[in-house]
Specification:
This protein is α+β, with helices and mostly antiparallel strands. The chain has three domains: 115 residues, no CATH class; 104 residues, PH-domain like, CATH 2.30.29; 97 residues, no CATH class. Helix content is 40%, strand content 16%. The protein has twelve helices and twelve strands. The strands form four sheets. Strands 1-2-3-4 form a four-stranded antiparallel sheet. Strands 7-6-5-8 form a four-stranded mixed sheet, with no helix packed on it. Strands 9-12 form a two-stranded antiparallel ribbon. The longest helix has 29 residues. The protein is flat. It is a multi-pass membrane protein. InterPro entries: TM129. Its main location: membrane. Keywords: Membrane, Transmembrane, Transmembrane helix.
Length: 357
């Protein structure tokens, strides 16, 4: 294999993937379709719907040109090679077909002042008989400019909720549904563990937005569980929740789950048969279920100390106590930190929390 070809192929592949999926570095460098074509696209704030009509079309066209760019680049990078093999001809055909199809599609969309664009068609479903989709578009434009809208999400999957609309902006599409006729259901929650290398424990919620109008396509929005409360405030109807989904709205809630899963793998502590477990003195609801035993290091080593208290707390209360002694702004330090025993003040770490048997 010739090395310039391989080098170019790898470099182009990385560029193409980054250009399509735009990681943060590409956003910071301004290497996105909307940044490169900002002059033609106009401003999202000034005119939300026209901006996205043009942006989706431009993105589709730019991305469809990537294979052709590769072909041209390859011809320049390895000019002494001849590109007459059937595989290369097939590739060239594909590279030319893709942008051609994109152009035809965009031309079709743009006819009649973009009336055939999928976004315009969705808006037309909400239009009054006497006015067209443009009236709906201008009401969305106005609402998008308001500062009290709810907006979140990565650039490739933004979620925007205004007083009237629920919208999701993706690379090639803009999903729109009117608040008054949608049902929102939390269908999934995924927890990302709090670990020393990730700064924040996060729970990601997937919410299905389904319109009562069958012509409006249902779509999923994703957001952080800590933003859930803010979303609920912006919505007029309650969000339903699938039976198996548990939502942790605060950092403390998220932490408790991690705390419990870590304590589970610590060695258990067997209580002497003469000793009876009392109710947890924190909540008085359940029986005490944890004992602090220094197991992280040798008895004399390290900062942790041996606690001689009998089991007095349940796992949840101990977790809450542990979380309450942490710096809320530095969740990355939580797991590694030491806190005093709530009763005797002996310092302990998570490794020293043992469930009683
Ligand atoms: Zn308790
Ligand atoms: Zn103690
Ligand atoms: Zn310890």
């Amino acid at each position: 294999m010739d090395s310039p070809e391989v080098t170019f192929t790898l470099a182009y592949l990385v560029f193409a993937v980054c250009f399509v999926f735009t990681p943060n570095e590409f956003h910071a460098a301004g290497l996105t379709v909307q940044n490169l074509l900002s002059g033609w696209l106009g401003s999202e704030d000034a005119a939300f719907v026209p901006f996205h009509l043009r942006r989706t079309a431009a993105t589709l066209l730019c991305h469809s040109l990537l294979p052709l760019g590769y072909y041209v680049g390859m011809c320049l990078a390895a000019s002494e090679k001849r590109f007459h093999s059937p595989a290369w001809r097939l590739f060239l055909l594909l590279a030319v077909t893709l942008p051609s199809v994109a152009c035809i599609l965009i031309y079709y969309w743009s006819r009649g002042r973009w009336a055939r664009h999928p976004l315009a068609r969705t808006l037309a479903l909400y239009a009054l008989p006497q006015s067209g989709w443009q009236a709906v578009a201008s009401s969305i434009n106005t609402e998008f400019r308001r500062i009290d809208k709810f907006a979140t999400g990565a650039p490739g999957a933004r979620v925007i909720v205004t007083d009237v609309w629920v919208m999701k902006v993706t690379t090639y599409r803009v999903h729109v549904a009117q608040q008054q006729d949608v049902h929102l259901t939390v269908t999934e929650s995924r927890q990302h563990e709090l670990s020393p290398d990730s700064n924040l424990p996060v729970q990601l919620l997937t919410i299905r937005v389904a319109s009562a109008n069958p012509a409006v396509q249902a779509f999923d929005i994703r957001l952080n569980s800590t933003e859930y409360g803010e979303l609920c405030e912006k919505l007029r109807a309650p969000i339903r929740r699938a039976a198996h989904v548990v939502i942790h709205q605060s950092l403390g809630d998220l932490f408790l789950e991690t705390f419990a899963s870590l304590v589970e793998v610590n060695p258990a502590y067997s209580v002497p048969s003469s000793q009876e477990l009392e109710a947890c003195i924190g909540c008085m609801q359940t029986r005490a279920s944890v004992k602090l035993v220094k197991t992280c290091q040798e008895a004399a080593a390290g900062e942790c100390q041996q606690c001689y208290c009998r089991p007095m707390w349940c796992l949840t209360c101990m977790g809450k106590w542990f979380a309450s002694r942490q710096d809320p702004l530095r969740p990355d330090t939580w797991l590694a930190s030491r806190v005093p025993c709530p009763t005797c003040r002996a310092r302990f770490c998570i490794l020293d929390v043992c469930t009683v048997r």
